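Entry type: protein chain
Record version: 2
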Amino acid sequence: VVMLLPVLSLLIPSGNISLSAPFIQFDAHFGILGIVNIVTGGALNYLIQMVSSEIAGEAFGALISALICFIAVVLLAVFCFLFSLFGFISIRNMQKITSVTAALGILMSIVSMAMIAIFNGKASDCIIIDGSFGFGLIVTLVMFCAVFAVNLMLWKTGIHPVYDEGVEERARIYKEVKA
């Protein structure tokens, strides 16, 4: 359950985006659902085109950078969960890989928070776009820390998943083959 928490925490908004320009107007948030809304709603093409704008190009460039960092956090959260599942399939050293992935998730969460703050600063100078900061990435950062701590403990203590199914039968077959 702990390994799924970073993915679930990304549903909490980490900031808001408001765009009010001729021919387009939308409100979204930095969260998994907000990113999906931006991509499927057609606003992503507009945002990419607005990077070359002389008036608001810096704000839109900062927004694109913040979105890329946030997508990296989402991918790292999904990888942490998948690597945890692979650990139960008995792939060796998954605790190490999951710990490293969680550490990268911590780092990218901090970078993403900084990029959202930079976007908010640049958006305050622009008339057509506005942004605000939420607390979702702080929760995600705490969840990545929990995943890192759990996997680090598992890595250091050497506890690996134990499968009790069929242990007695395997021992009986081993004795028969040995005899």
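Comment: Strands lie at 15-21, 24-29, 129-133.
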